[in-house]
Amino acid sequence: MSDSITVDENGKLKCSIEYTLGKIGGKWKPVILWHLAYDGTQRYNEMRRLLPGITHKMLSQQLKELEVDGLIDRKQFNEVPPRVEYSISEKGLTLKPLLEEMHRWGTEQWGGE
Amino acid sequence: MSDSITVDENGKLKCSIEYTLGKIGGKWKPVILWHLAYDGTQRYNEMRRLLPGITHKMLSQQLKELEVDGLIDRKQFNEVPPRVEYSISEKGLTLKPLLEEMHRWGTEQWGGE
DNA sequence: CAGGATCCGCGATGATACTG
DNA sequence: CAGTATCATCGCGGATCCTG
């Protein structure tokens, strides 16, 4: 059973795995989604604490992309001081099995080498 | 339920999801593993055909890393011309649920936006 | 055929300063 | 507090040539 391959608007070949990688690939997104899915709603600075090593720029950039892709929700309160809460979206919840598999495999293999 | 966080030898924080990303993260590895897992054993040049757009360097590099990590097997035949066959390993097979989830999610979401 | 070695550009990422 | 803007850097990945 091979994957179905198609061609995108730029002539680049894509398969559904590449599509998934495009949405949640990279160093931070799976971890961000994991925290929001299993630790629940978080404020911006709380996210920073959950992701040691991430920079301001990366965090806001990744959050923005995830929001644009509809995988997380952003709720802004117009208070002083400002407050913004991030949470997993309905669509983001469909990633739970994938995130769980990533977590399970990592936990299982860790140290087994 | 939060992920357990530990510290690696360099002082960098890692969780099991980051561990997984370290092993199969990146642009090519999941797709390579997918083909070997579902299309079966492939020769080097067959892999190239299955991965349109990948360069020589990237393919051999990724294959080498996957082999070192024990996720794929490399079988070399000392013939002329040379022949090398790559296949998914026992350990690599444990990634099947993860690969299937990546494939399933990508297929499901594709076009749904 | 199956790769290794080398050079190099650019996008991803980081550091820092600034703002509503 | 929750970002944005700007500049610097670093290494991923591509192009090319070479080899057993």
From TrEMBL, chains A, B:
The keyword DNA-binding applies. Pfam families: HxlR. Coiled coil: none annotated. This is Winged helix-turn-helix transcriptional regulator. Residues 15-113 form the HTH hxlR-type domain. InterPro entries: HTH_HxlR, WH-like_DNA-bd_sf, WH_DNA-bd_sf. It comes from the Bacteria. Keywords: DNA-binding, Transcription, Transcription regulation.
